């Protein structure tokens, strides 16, 4: 019973992880990043408060919980 519940939680965490990663914007700016580099430093002050920063932090936490849960399931 416990293994079934943990497996369901793991699947839900996996779906949340996929959704959070898909909601993030791409990190490769390409040529437009080289041209607009000055604006990037001006906006970097509020980077910690942006949606992308919150999504990145959420991705790290969800991945960490998923990893621990996977290790627990492998021991059961």
Tell me about this structure:
Helices cover 79% and strands 0% of the residues. With 76 residues, the protein is mainly alpha-helical. The chain has one domain (2-21, 33-75). Helix 1 runs antiparallel to helix 4 (51-75). The mean pLDDT is 81.
Keyword list:
76 residues, mainly alpha, 4 helices, 79% helix
Write the layout of secondary structure elements.
Blueprint: H1 2-23, H2 30-35, H3 37-43, H4 51-75
- Please report the total strand number as a whole number: 0
Taking the sheet with the most strands, its summary is: none
Radius of gyration: 18 Å
Report the mean per-residue pLDDT as an integer: 81
How many angstroms separate the termini?
Answer: 11 Å
Domains, number:
1
Question: What is the chain-wise order of helices and strands?
Answer: HHHH
Summarize the structure.
The protein is mostly helical. The protein is built from 4 helices and no strands.
């Amino acid at each position: 019973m416990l293994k079934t519940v943990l497996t369901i939680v793991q699947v839900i965490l996996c779906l949340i992880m996929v959704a959070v990663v898909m909601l993030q914007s791409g990190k490769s700016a390409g040529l437009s990043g080289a041209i607009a580099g000055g604006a990037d430093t001006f906006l970097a002050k509020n980077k910690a408060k942006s949606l992308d920063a919150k999504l990145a932090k959420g991705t790290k936490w969800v991945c960490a919980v998923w990893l621990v849960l996977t290790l627990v399931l492998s021991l059961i």
